[in-house]
Amino acid sequence: NSPIRAVDPEIAGLLDRELERQREGLEMIASENFVPRAVLQAQGSVLTNKYAEGYPGRRYYGGCEWVDRVESIARTRACDLFGAQYANVQPHAGAQANAAVYQALIEPGDTVLGLALDHGGHLTHGMKINFSGRFYRAESYGVNPETFRIDPEIIRRRALETHPALIIGGWSAYPRIEDFQAMKEIADEVGARFWVDMAHFAGLVAAGLHPSPVPWADVVSSTAHKTLGGPRSGFILARKEYGKKIDSAVFPGNQGGPLMHVVAAKAVAFKLAGTAEFKDRMARTLEGARILAERLMAPDLAARGITVLTGGTDVHLVMVDLRESDMDGRQGEDLLARVGITVNRNTVPFDPRPASVSSGLRIGTSALATRGFGAAEYEEVADIIGTALAAGRGADVDALRARVDRLVEDFPLYPGLVQTD
Ligand code: PLP
């Protein structure tokens, strides 16, 4: 029972380095967040030792009395938080949740219709070499080429052309709130099921700051670790009638034993997401994204061909459009990394550059809200990013890095935490 520092100093050292990296930079990858210490504790607990194939009260292993309680609490909390009739909290990650949704709702070879990957959709919504594109006939809808927004008329036209069995809402790199009711009506019109993958904006939904897909979608899937701020994992919500099919699609359809330590961590995260403190965090997340979008639409950036897709944001992320700029996505990502800010490059719709380089940056504000940022700090970080991108190769990296250092010092991450004792 020696501590990791004694057993495996090599890995312990790398854990320390990663904590240091997270503490010393500004994390603005839109899909990332910092879990509360209570979530870390649940996830690092002895529940990792327990096999619990099956569901509470119906397990294929003995000794499940305590993990049964944990999973039942997690399910109830997920239902309460999102106003859902049914929840499955076992998916190991978002991709596994989505695989189970397909298996529960449609048959291999059926047609599905989701947002195109290069317009902001996710791999599991029909990418060619993903299971979703290999086992199902994947069709896609794009954004409106004028507004760059998702347009119900385009979805409707594509649905009438392709006759999908399943229409997919939800996205990974898209900055706007869209109309789930309109999508449900299209699904009804063409006789399709309607599924929303709310992985990115689940925290905003939980806080009541984004319309919920739950009243409209047949099934809603999500990750727990993006805006929602829980452990890296997935879950599924649905109307009661789909419960049995989803349960068997998750286990034994796609997974073996659930990761009960992660299920416990999800339960903690669902509890925290119902608090006033969480709602305040989500409100700061949104405010930060609006401040960032505004700064990135200023004349100094426009002069360099840099703008913001859709002219703003309704959610936790901003999509920077570099199509008209001589700086590509990779160069933008690298420049911000040198300043101490982590973002990811991303294709934008109708991107003239290859995906490996791309013409977009996806910048998210949730992790910094968790760190404590409010309007004043977002103004500062927005100006650091704006100044860096406007200057490009000529940016004064040292001066900008010094401004990042001040923010980092003022908002310490996991104060006092030593993870390798
Ligand atoms: N769904 C959406 C919309 C996502 O953005 C992501 C992750 O990026 C996933 C699903 C997949 O989640 P995971 O990485 O946990 O498999």
From TrEMBL:
Q: Which cofactor does it need?
A: pyridoxal 5'-phosphate
Provenance organism: Bifidobacterium favimelis
InterPro entries xref list: PyrdxlP-dep_Trfase, PyrdxlP-dep_Trfase_major, PyrdxlP-dep_Trfase_small, Ser_HO-MeTrfase, Ser_HO-MeTrfase-like, SHMT-like_dom
* Gene behind this protein: glyA
Q: What is this enzyme's catalytic activity, as reactions?
A: (6R)-5,10-methylene-5,6,7,8-tetrahydrofolate + glycine + H2O = (6S)-5,6,7,8-tetrahydrofolate + L-serine
Q: Which pathway does it serve?
A: One-carbon metabolism; tetrahydrofolate interconversion; Amino-acid biosynthesis; glycine biosynthesis; glycine from L-serine: step 1/1
Cross-referenced PANTHER family: SERINE HYDROXYMETHYLTRANSFERASE, SERINE HYDROXYMETHYLTRANSFERASE 1
- Catalytic activity, EC: 2.1.2.1
Q: Where is this site: Plays an important role in substrate specificity?
A: 225
Q: What protein am I looking at?
A: Serine hydroxymethyltransferase
Record-linked NCBIfam families: PRK00011.1
Function as written in the Swiss-Prot or TrEMBL entry: Catalyzes the reversible interconversion of serine and glycine with tetrahydrofolate (THF) serving as the one-carbon carrier. This reaction serves as the major source of one-carbon groups required for the biosynthesis of purines, thymidylate, methionine, and other important biomolecules. Also exhibits THF-independent aldolase activity toward beta-hydroxyamino acids, producing glycine and aldehydes, via a retro-aldol mechanism.
- What's the family? Belongs to the SHMT family.
Q: Where N6-(pyridoxal phosphate)lysine occurs along the chain?
A: 226
| Molecular functions (GO terms) | glycine hydroxymethyltransferase activity
Give the multimer and partner information.
Answer: Homodimer.
The residues covered by the Serine hydroxymethyltransferase-like domain are: 5-385
Amino-acid biosynthesis listed as a keyword? yes
Top enzyme category:
transferase
Q: Where does (6S)-5,6,7,8-tetrahydrofolate bind?
A: 117, 121-123
Q: Which UniProt keywords apply?
A: Amino-acid biosynthesis, Cytoplasm, One-carbon metabolism, Pyridoxal phosphate, Transferase
Tell me yes or no: is Plastid among this UniProt entry's keywords: no
Task: Kindly name one Pfam family recorded for this protein.
Answer: SHMT
Q: Give its localization.
A: Cytoplasm
- Superkingdom field: Bacteria
